[in-house]
Amino acid sequence: MNKFERAELDHQLEKAFTFHGKPCGGTVIGVRMAMLGLKLIGITDPKGTQRKDIMAVAENDRCSIDAIQHVTGCKVAARALKLKDYGKVAATFVNLKTGKAVRIVCPEETRQIVEKYKPAEGEKKDRTIAGYKNIPLNELFYAQEVSVAFDEDDMPGHAKSRIKCSRCGEWVSDHRERDVNGETLCTTCVEGGYYKVVKDRIPL
Ligand SMILES: [Zn+2]
Ligand SMILES: [Zn+2]
Question: Taking a C-beta distance cutoff of 8 angstroms, is the pair 74, 82 a contact?
């Protein structure tokens, strides 16, 4: 890393730590992953002229996802940041203009390798942060060129459809409804969902 790259990393880290709420090793990994990802897909102005050209897919919902959001400018609410919670320290960065996509992985071995880049002295957390800043990219990550095919219903922009669930009466966007024996149902009515209604229409 030359001194300009180091300065850019420090600049991104400072803002990412603020966004994340605290400095931590996971944020350093996420910032370096996102900076590398953007570079490899040819994005130099992620928050300006190229802001609509990027999509990112995070493979876990921990610290690095804040860093990826901060560096790429991709937001869940804009449908440009996807979460595929596979429990892996990995993410994919897609240039929607060129179709180029790169998946970056921080492998398990890095946990050992990073030890030699940690300063001998200092608090555990500071040593971890310094270690993940100092470790060369090719020892921190491996990368794969990938092809990514998103469904039209997953892309940014207005909702492609809106339809009423014939059982609960709630509305469903973007073709997330299911057709079961000729009945149009929402996911909750088909799968049971993550909640059970204890009392309906409570007073507000
Ligand atoms: Zn964290
Ligand atoms: Zn329903």
Answer: no
